């Protein structure tokens, strides 16, 4: 997997499912990551987890694992890469195994998973070392997603990334916030530069608050990171990947019209319904649609109405009313 000058869709639990990842890919994202799945649940053969770890057709997607037991994470990676995971289907090859060492959520952290590992370099390194033995067997990269550190007093990402690279990580993504900052503004990209300096030979992907092509290239320029990962912006603006691709290729970028935003959101919602059924899909569609129509005239009212919709047909009717007003 090549990371140079690349733009990836960040993993976001509940949002970056197969339809969303395929949409971003179709608009130019170089790769994506599944939402984090529990390594333990993978090992138990949990069918729901299998569905979350699945990769659809035409994807370049890493499967992200969380866990704190080296042998469990390694075994989970083996089950995924061998395709022996109940409930999972891999219609494209798994592009990488990614390990989550950045999740700030209390439930995760108190179990010693996610960003808690940034306070336990020994265990984190052991996880990477054991899992790298497996990923090497399959010839698949092993990547790790970390944060700047635990809190402002403990910004250890550069040393931590160095230890992970020594243990066998093939690339490191740095979300430039501490655990304590959760998702609050603002990310501090300086730490990404320090990580890149600490592991110059290993690809580093910068993450945090990138919202446009200019921001993406500025992050790569100012920190020396190899690629960028974009999360929340992509939820309603997957065209950010097309914008980056256009800049990279020296082509002009035309932002989507209101009609295009609505039709793309509807296609995404149909994909979600196809995957999860109409009951779940329609409920998920409420949040998904809201991201796409933000800022459009009449959006608040449309959002309210979508929140009460029970079928796809209703959602389509409500949303197409939006672009009728735009012309
Ligand atoms: C709703 C939501 C869910 C997330 N789930 C995950 C996850 O499963 N794994 C992970 O590594 N990061 C997760 N993240 C963090 C994002 O991948 C990303 O690091 C963060 O949003 C910062 O990037 P951004 O400013 O471009 O959004 C999540 C973020 C959000 C907002």
Please give the alpha-carbon distance between the first and last residues.
Answer: 43 Å
| CATH top level assignment of the largest domain | Alpha Beta
Derived structural class: alpha/beta
Proportion in β-strands: 5-15%
- Ligands and ions found: flavin mononucleotide
Mean pLDDT: 96
Provide a concise account of the structure shown.
50% of the residues lie in helices and 14% in strands. The chain starts with 5 loop residues before the first strand and ends with a helix. It has 327 residues and is an alpha/beta fold.
Properties at a glance:
327 residues; alpha/beta; TIM Barrel; Non-ribosomal Peptide Synthetase Peptidyl Carrier Protein, Chain A; 2 domains; eight-stranded parallel β-barrel; 15 helices; 9 strands; 14% strand; globular; binds flavin mononucleotide
Can you describe what's shown?
This protein is 50% helix and 14% strand. It is of the alpha/beta class. It has 2 domains: 6-249, TIM Barrel; 258-326, Non-ribosomal Peptide Synthetase Peptidyl Carrier Protein, Chain A (Orthogonal Bundle). It has an 8-stranded parallel barrel, surrounded by 6 helices. Strand 7, helix 8 (190-198) and strand 8 (204-207) form a beta-alpha-beta unit. The longest helix has 19 residues, at 258-276. The termini are far apart. The model has no long low-confidence stretch (mean pLDDT 96). The protein binds flavin mononucleotide. Flavin mononucleotide binds at residues 10-13, 35-36, 64, 100, 102-103, 145, 175, 183, 207-210, 230-233.
